[in-house]
Amino acid sequence: METSTLFVFLSLSLFFSDCNFPFHVHASQSNHGTAKFKLIHRHSPELGNFHGTTLGPPSNSRERLRQLMRSDNARLNTITRRLFPRRKNVHVDIPANPNLVELPIRSAADIGTGQYFVSFRVGSPPRKFIMIIDTGSSLTWMKCKYKCKSCFKDRASQHERILNAKTSRTFRPIPCSSNICKQDLARSFSLQHCPRPSAPCSYDYRYSDGTTVLGLFGNETAIVRLTDGRKFKMPEVMIGCSETIMGEFHDIDGVMGLGFEWHSFALKAAKKFGYKFSYCLVDHLSPSNLVNFLVFGEINDPTMPKMQYTELILGVVNPYYAVNVSGISIDGKMLDIPSHVWDIRSGGGVIVDSGCSLTQLVNPAFNRVAAAFEAPLSKFKKLSTSSEGAEPEICFDDAGYKESMMPKLAIHFADGAKLMPPVKSYVLDAADGEKCLGFTSTPWPGSTVIGNILQQNHLWEFDLLNSRLGFAPSSCTFE
């Protein structure tokens, strides 16, 4: 069945869009089908087929890992800035709705923003975009022109994807005099300058790598294609019309915000499709004919694996999705990691981030994990790593290596659920003849981040209504 065609990076940490007030979401019953987006990994050869991007596979395995590490480091800097100081709790009252939407995901370029794309149409008439999907930001924005007549003039002549908001029948700018602009969007860098009450609410995003994105906020209609073939219109989706982009975003159409905020696409889509979204990530080194998916709604598939569920901590570190971890074990033995490392309310905690590749462990946890691998890794020649932070910290020559020689790692959740990733998800192929542990250290205090490589070959379900995260081993081949 044909699905909608909008590409977006899936990540968890782009914008500073935390919100400091309670908000409520009211759903209406409707007969929407499942919406599914194809996810494309940033290193997929498939991305080379789309004009106007510089995406595609790196030249070799070593460069692939360096790209992922550089992206992770940029994301971690942004996550750290956004989580400290911690924000107030934000409550979302979400009623039930039994519907579903599904989108395919692909992967994205190395700009420190995310790893996956999905395809998306917006505007009237609809315009297709290739965008980053980001579970750590709330605003959906794209290349766009509204006030600026000369914006992207050179790129329009090359048939690049640009929204002309002025001619879209459904675009409605948000006034700068509104409380939404002055208060609600303050954490999304809305500007206080308001030359007249009806003037559009503007924003100025600044990224850690120096990238700047300038534009205005508005409401627009998005269109998704459901798995039963129908097209479904989603009106009043808040978007950012970005007229000026300076820095690394020049070859990217935009970002789809999936973070936990009232104006994010995740909340808007979840309202229509059952307050759930899920994704399943195949091995990032898999053949390109194996596909990842981002799904909105309930997956009704008899082959779907049985889920384990754990608490999803919402509203504490918005827009991130946090979980309640109790510890890490190696071959069934719990490591001696201080309990405060896992406490999200006292400077620690764990977030699930599909935009980071490697798993980031705060120093007290990283040191114990590294010590637990000393004995099994003593059989192999240790290899030196770069001091620039663009490579994993523990690497070895893999002559004679077998997965059975590595201990079994598990992440334990406070309510009894247990994630047991395959060995290939934490002992990674770095280059020919070289393997590395897929963990990097990050300073304490700070948050541990479960990256997308550790999440691979699992189905992940974000149940916003019941504040729970489901996961189960999966080949990701379900329809």
UniProtKB/TrEMBL annotation:
- Keywords for this entry? Aspartyl protease, Glycoprotein, Hydrolase, Protease, Signal
In what residue span(s) does the Peptidase A1 domain sit? 116-472
* Pfam family of the protein (one): TAXi_C
- Which InterPro entries does this entry report, sorted A to Z? Aspartic_peptidase_A1 (IPR001461), Aspartic_peptidase_AS (IPR001969), Pepsin-like_plant (IPR034161), PEPTIDASE_A1 (IPR033121), Peptidase_aspartic_dom_sf (IPR021109), Plant_Aspart_Prot_A1 (IPR051708), TAXi_C (IPR032799), TAXi_N (IPR032861)
Signal peptide per UniProt:
1-19
Alphabetical list of SUPFAM superfamilies matching this protein: Acid proteases (SSF50630)
- Family membership, please give it: Belongs to the peptidase A1 family.
Tell me the protein's name. Peptidase A1 domain-containing protein
